[in-house]
């Protein structure tokens, strides 16, 4: 069984990015790529994500800034922050951390972001361009999964990929990316969700199983074909008194039992999550190079 090690792979890609930043930006007298993040409210998971993004920016030599606002910040004020970042020539790309408090329309905020700075790839222009296979910012998690499959040389052509979960940010885009006529794709994809009858019928046939259901421990060993490749996108906090943070992270897959049956698997933590951050850095690099017109 191969552990698809997001920690080692993300460190490797980060060092590649750092080398490029030094050579093509700093040594060339250009300002480093600049990623900004907007955080509204005190959701602990969101705080951790944003802190990790800042840390990763520092590691590769990017400039980063975080705009923090209280949970009662108004939608109107947040739209003004988005306008400000859209117009700030020093910011190459930015993200608004989701979820947002209930009184703010996420869609309205996303649609206000300049697509050329939308390094999350959530704006309808980027989603549409991705669907048409035109240059665009790819959403970070599916982009990270694609990178992981490619770097670990996992063959996708002609394989049956089963995706569990049809969210706009993971399940739907990864289904599209893997089914398209392209190198490192060309798979036959089944997209399953909460209303799919007999999900096990699909999972047992999967050569590659991508699990993004948001249900802790959903996939057990009896649902997996022997030798399958398992990508676990789930991330859940479980209270744990014996850890420094007071919690432990778990995925959508029962790692201990499934890892005995599959040929390769991503751990949680240390798998897809780290690849997501690296993808955001790659998108920011692309934004700073003005590669997407
Ligand atoms: N919340 C969970 N995942 C993401 C992500 O990829 N981007 C943003 N902005 N918020 C998130």
CATH architecture of the largest domain: 3-Layer(aba) Sandwich
Percentage of residues in helical conformation? 25-40%
Q: Total helix count?
A: 10
Number of domains: 2
Straight-line N-to-C gap: 42 Å
Runs in which pLDDT lies below 50 for 5 or more consecutive residues are: none
How many E strands? 11
Small-molecule components bound: guanine
The CATH homologous superfamily of the largest domain = NAD(P)-binding Rossmann-like Domain
CATH topology of the largest domain: Rossmann fold
Major sheet, described briefly?
6 strands, parallel
Q: What is the approximate shape?
A: globular
> In what range is the share of β-strand residues?
15-25%
The helix/strand series, from N terminus to C terminus, equals EHEHEHEHHHEHEHEEEEHEH
Radius of gyration: 19 Å
Strand order of the largest sheet: 1-11-8-7-5-6
Summary?
With 293 residues, the chain is of the alpha/beta class. It contains ten helices and eleven strands.
What would the keywords be for this entry?
293 residues; alpha/beta; Rossmann fold; 2 domains; 3-stranded parallel sheet; 10 helices; 16% strand; binds guanine
In words, what does this structure look like?
With 293 residues, the protein is α/β, with parallel strands linked by helices. It folds into two domains: 29-134, Leucine Dehydrogenase, chain A, domain 1 (Rossmann fold, 3-Layer(aba) Sandwich); 140-272, Rossmann fold (3-Layer(aba) Sandwich). It contains ten helices and eleven strands. The strands form three sheets. A six-stranded parallel sheet has the order 1-11-8-7-5-6. Strands 3-2-4 form a three-stranded parallel sheet, sandwiched between helices. It has a two-stranded antiparallel ribbon with strand order 9-10. β9 (236-239) and β10 form a beta hairpin. The longest helix has 21 residues, at 6-26. The N and C termini lie far apart (42 Å). The model has no long low-confidence stretch (mean pLDDT 97). Guanine (GUN) binds at residues 95-98, 120, 140-141, 169.
């Amino acid at each position: 069984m191969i552990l698809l090690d997001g920690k080692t792979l993300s460190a490797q890609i980060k060092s590649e990015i750092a080398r490029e930043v030094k050579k093509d930006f700093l040594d060339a007298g250009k300002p480093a790529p600049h990623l900004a993040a907007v955080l509204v409210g005190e959701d602990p998971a969101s705080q951790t994500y944003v802190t990790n993004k800042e840390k990763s920016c520092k590691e590769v030599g990017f400039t980063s800034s975080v705009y923090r606002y209280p949970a009662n910040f108004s939608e109107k004020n947040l739209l003004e922050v988005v306008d400000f970042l859209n117009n700030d020539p020093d910011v190459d790309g930015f993200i608004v951390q989701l979820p947002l408090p209930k009184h703010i329309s996420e869609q309205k905020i996303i649609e206000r972001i300049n697509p050329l700075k939308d390094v999350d790839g959530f704006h309808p222009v980027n989603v549409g361009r991705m669907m048409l296979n035109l240059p665009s910012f790819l959403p970070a998690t599916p982009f990270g999964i694609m990178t992981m499959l490619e770097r670990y040389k996992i063959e996708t052509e002609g394989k049956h990929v089963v995706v569990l979960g049809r969210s706009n940010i993971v399940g739907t885009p990864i289904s599209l990316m893997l089914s398209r006529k392209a190198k490192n794709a060309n798979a036959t994809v089944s997209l399953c969700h909460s209303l799919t009858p007999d999900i096990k019928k699909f999972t047992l046939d999967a050569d590659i199983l991508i699990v993004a259901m948001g249900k802790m421990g959903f996939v057990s060993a009896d649902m997996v074909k022997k030798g399958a490749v398992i990508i676990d996108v789930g991330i859940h906090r479980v209270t744990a008194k014996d850890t420094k943070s007071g919690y432990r992270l778990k995925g959508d897959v029962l790692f201990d039992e499934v890892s005995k049956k599959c040929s390769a698997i991503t751990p949680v933590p240390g798998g897809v999550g780290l690849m997501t951050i690296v993808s955001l850095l790659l998108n920011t690099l692309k934004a700073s190079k003005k590669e997407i017109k």
